[in-house]
């Protein structure tokens, strides 16, 4: 049961939501900075900048709190799985026949969750690297710093979410002694 919680679809969706929230926050910060860099100083632009600043701060705080909760939940699940591994096996009265999978867990050969996490995380990393490869040749002395910040605000969360997902997959596989699920 703990193994299923570690790679639950809800945790994967939450990781993607946190990455999207980080991208949104970076875009709002970039829009705020770009709005203030203009030469005209009308009250409407200052009001828009204040709204952008508030939205950027809220989305950044939500991403930070969500990421902290996600990491803490993963740590707690890893500790529980490690503690469970130290416990002597099931009592003989509850032992399953050889080769039978527990009723609440898939068979050891059906690693669907692990593969879903692995593929989603690898795709996130590849998308981040592809964007980095597309942006890197365009960099130069005349590059707008706001465009650079906006592209970094997309690339870094993609790479971060992919790396966290791959690390979760690697720990899950190692904790199970090399089986996929």
Automatic annotation (TrEMBL):
Keyword check for Membrane: yes
Transmembrane segments: 12-32, 44-71, 114-136, 148-171
Keyword vocabulary terms for this entry: Membrane, Transmembrane, Transmembrane helix
Name of this protein: Integral membrane protein
């Amino acid at each position: 049961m703990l193994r299923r919680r570690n790679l639950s679809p809800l945790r994967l969706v939450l990781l993607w939501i946190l990455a999207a929230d980080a991208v949104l926050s970076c875009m709002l910060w970039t829009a705020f900075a770009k709005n203030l860099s203009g030469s005209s100083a009308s009250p409407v632009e200052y009001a828009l900048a204040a709204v952008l600043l508030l939205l950027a701060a809220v989305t950044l705080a939500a991403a930070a709190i969500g990421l902290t909760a996600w990491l803490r939940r993963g740590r707690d699940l890893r500790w529980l799985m490690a503690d469970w591994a130290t416990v002597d096996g099931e009592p003989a009265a509850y032992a399953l026949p050889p080769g039978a999978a527990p009723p609440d867990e898939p068979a050891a050969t059906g690693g669907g969750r692990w593969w879903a996490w692995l593929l989603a995380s690898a795709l996130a990393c590849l998308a981040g690297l592809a964007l980095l490869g597309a942006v890197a040749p365009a960099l130069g002395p005349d590059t707008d710093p706001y465009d650079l910040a906006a592209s970094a605000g997309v690339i870094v969360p993609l790479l971060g979410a992919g790396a966290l997902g791959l690390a979760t997959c690697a720990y899950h596989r190692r904790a199970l002694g090399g089986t996929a699920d």
